[in-house]
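Re: [help] complex structure
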Amino acid sequence: MSHDRLSVLKLTVNNHPGVLSHVCGLFARRSYNLEGVMVRPIAGNPPNRSRMWLLVNEEERLPQLIKQTEKLIDVINVEQHELKDSVFEITQQFFV
Amino acid sequence: MTNPATDTEPCTEYRLCGSELLIKLLERQGITHIIGIPGGANLPMYDALTRSTIKHILARHEQGAGFIAQGMARATGKAQVCFASSGPGASNLVTAVADAKMDSIPLIAITGQVHQAMIGTDAFQEIDTFGLMLPITKHNWMVRSAKELLEVIPQAFEIALSGRPGPVSIDIPKDVQNQIIEIEQFPEPGVRKMNPIFDIQQVTRMLEKIRHAERPILMIGGGIIYAGASKALLQFAEQLDLPTIQTFMGLGILPSGHPLSLGMLGMHGAPYTNLVLEECDLVIGMGVRFDDRATGKVAAFCPKADIVHVDIDHSEIGKILNPVLSIRADVGEVLTSANEILEPSQRPLWRQRVAQLKEKYPLILNGQDDLFSPYGAIKTVASLLDDSVNITTDVGQHQMWVAQVYPFNRPRQWASSGGLGTMGFGLPAAIGMALAQPERKVICFTGDGSLMMNIQELATAAEHDLDIKVVILNNNHLGLVRQQQTLFYEKNLSAVKFKQEVDFALTARGMGMKGVNLAVSDNPLLDLKSALLEQGPCVINIPIAETEMVFPMVAPGGANRDMIHGQTA
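Output below.
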């Protein structure tokens, strides 16, 4: 995996229909480069939350991208995460 | 059983269907008008509406409905509701919703959808409204049960009104509208959320930056109007003696004749306005988003200046320009804090230099004494009216001429499609302003190209006998396109002339209102005056030459200092 400009974002989102569309739609219409998406519901309190991992290929526009993502109503939280040991590195073997 | 749709006090238990619940929740939000068009998939909503205190305005096209609701929202700052059916009803709303997004207008678009069991089958009048509305709203929903309405409707209002306002869309399948639900209590209406908290130290730092600047400029936009902060802004500008530039969306915040007002900047700004920005050393942007029509080529915008940016939308900060200081906050709260702690100051040298530029590089007003020329027509109309009137425009040359010279003297006096630039905006928006503020006359300045895009709403205006005057600067061309082809495509005019002319005065009469054609008038000024001053809807046709152009003009993508000027008279 080329690590140059890649960042990993860890999102906590509401788990209901349309959330993935809202996130992916934002990336498409603002032409942010999205290299990977992983999303699953998460257990715990409060219920009905999902974890969404995004692999993004943006350097200069990353702060703007994060702010735009935070504005989405169904996005509860956005954190930056290391690429190393991320879900994308671990699952690399499935994407060859 | 009592009628649940008309009860005003919550009682212990209600049994009602989804559409009745929807209407009840809208009543509780204080909605007085709904603008829309019924169809197969929203029949239950229209059934419930007949048992409501809410007045329905039947538009002639869903785009018209969206813009009428926008006109009400722009006049009042309150969230407004439009209705459409599924399929083409919903897709016809799209332009008005997208327009509301670009100009931060709290519009609530509620659409019917086919039965949930039919979704995905390419059913009659089925369209993916959720997908259509997703990129052009702050947030949108497909409601999957009547119970969800209890959360979605208040949340829709909260989102539309909070922070930076904007549109939301709610798609409701027909079975959800018909679903019977029993509820014990209605939810609290959705209201604007608390503004983000900011550090008062940031305000102190902003005031320091202003104190240390030699040639500061205040740049103000729509955010000031939406924050209801025009008075606080005036005090701030006067106390600190700051020459002030208004964006297109900010016109009216400062009275047009105010000594600190430098009018509008950008593509069609006055020469001195753009030239002041070349010399300034600090720009304090408040409630602005540094749109490309305002900044011109960004790299050449205010080349000598540091930027301070105050905006409630944190994604606007750093989007176009990197400020040396930014405050993410309600601009009204920042101004109130600043006004409490600032030390008044004077800048006689800078003010003198600004005055010099203003005198040396004014806006050239060719033809201002001729009723049949753009500036003359607009200035004559303005001279016959007072500040109580509201103004809308369509999009094109007439819009820029109005923005340049109409004397706007109060916030929310002016409604125009700024971001999306939607031709067809002006007439329905004027209808909305007239419905929201029936005591005010509305002038819709339009062009012949723009008016044709929503001309069917003349019948809506006539039906409600609204005090709207549609003033057409008629050159029988798509004038601003013609201008660009003339200036940038070597006069290779392509598809800009209407070979079939329209008799707009006759059309107006056909739609049930008065029509006046000043081209055939014996006394045009007198006819204009009586048409403007009497009550009721009227179309006033004023022919102008198609060779008229809006000057100055910054070429798209060009730097604001490189203005193209017209011939002086």
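Strands of chain A lie at 6-14, 34-42, 49-57, 75-81.
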